[in-house]
Amino acid sequence: MTREDEIAELQKELQQNPRSAQFARLADMYLSRDMNAEAETLVRQSLKFHPRSVSGLILMGRILKLKKSHQEALKPLSDATALAPDNWKAWQELAEAQLELKNGKQALAAFKKVLFFNPTHQLARRAVAKLELLTADEYEDDLFQMQKLSEKDAFNSNNQGTNQTWSHPDEQMVRTLSYIDALVVRHENAKALKLLNEYSEQHGKHPEIESRKLKLSVFEEPTFIQSKSAETASQIRQKLIVEKKISTLEMLLRRIESNKSDLLST
């Protein structure tokens, strides 16, 4: 069957059943033939019957992007990512729309989502690296000037028990985490881990920081270990890593229990 025959069959099916879910396939074929107006008419009509169709929403966003209506495209593409948060194609379409609108931070966040679900995506990797450089001047000068905790805060940080609660990351932490995630994307794991350790030491522990330290702990080099042999050093290193992972997991568990208690009390 030729593509023309397939289009004819799909057109016939949609004429007989306007609610057919095959509209996405036909609209995609329309776009491949630059039949953008036909594709838009079909998708708009079909989304009335299938408002939660992720494929339909992505197609609608793509069509609007082709029309240079990038601002309008944000709505269907955002809806698509909300309905299917693990759909990297939806995140890519959204990232490209944000990029056209010169929304650097939003584009960067969306491209990072692409990489999270499709780590080998070369376009997203290049985009993240470039956007991190382009938006570097937007960070405040004191972003990475770690301010030491006061003695009182340090005492409270070191004596938090099982009743400890954590607030959502503040703006400074969010920006720091964004920078650290960019380092990981560029495989600068040792640098990312060093920054995480510095932040944790100066500002206290937080699950967002500790969970990343847990993932990167394999890259940590405990230079303070003085072992008699390479084998002994390796064993000690592994023990330290295991202990750190256990500590982090215990902290995350306390957070879950705290959140659970909050939910039950409401």
From TrEMBL:
Domain of life of the native organism: Bacteria
SMART domains: TPR (SM00028)
Protein's UniProt keywords contain Lipid metabolism: no
TPR repeat residues: 88-121
A Pfam family matched in the record: TPR_19
SUPFAM superfamilies xrefs: TPR-like
UniProt keyword annotations, A-Z: TPR repeat
Protein name: Uncharacterized protein
Organism: Pseudobdellovibrio exovorus JSS
Lineage: Bacteria, Pseudomonadati, Bdellovibrionota, Bdellovibrionia, Bdellovibrionales
